[in-house]
Amino acid sequence: MPNVRCGNNCAAPPPSTHALDMSHSTSQTYSLEILAETTGVSTQLILQYQEHGILPPHFDDDTLRTLRRIEHLRETCEMNFRGLKMLTQLLDEVEQLRQELRARR
Q1: Tens of pLDDT, residues 40-78
Q2: Which residue in 20, 26, 77, 78 has the most C-beta neighbors within 10 A?
Q3: Beta bridge partners of 12
Q4: What whole-number distance in Å separates Cα of residue 15 and Cα of residue 19?
Q5: What pTM, to 2 d.p., does this model score?
């Protein structure tokens, strides 16, 4: 799967392959503190991501993957909250469409 390019010559990592089909697994839930400790992202920044609608109010395995993707984009592309939200939504939509195409084959 090709990497997504954005300004400043940075690349968003593709979603992990094990994340593509979570229908048969149970998702781990995390507290704010555990999510922050696991990812190295401050609790304050995680709460800001929530306030901007980038992260959901609950924290699970999908949130963990999303947060890692967001941090990669923020650090390498120097994107603001609005850009992060838009790009994350687009990447999620592309992945959903890919899953739908695979299901039709």
Answers
A1: 999 999 999 999 999 999 999 999 999 999 999 999 998
A2: 77
A3: 4
A4: 7
A5: 0.71
d(CA 97, CA 101): 6
| Residues 4, 74 contacting (CB under 8 angstroms) | no
Helix/strand/coil for 90: helix
Instruction: Please give the Cα distance from 20 to 75 (Å, whole number).
Output: 24
CA 68 to each of CA 40, 100, 101, 102: distance values in angstroms, whole numbers, following the listed order = 9, 24, 26, 25
Contact call for residues 5 and 65 (beta carbons, < 8 A):
no
CB count within 10 Å of CB 48 equals: 13
The structure tokens 């299901």 sit at: 103
2 CB neighbour count, 10 Å cutoff:
6
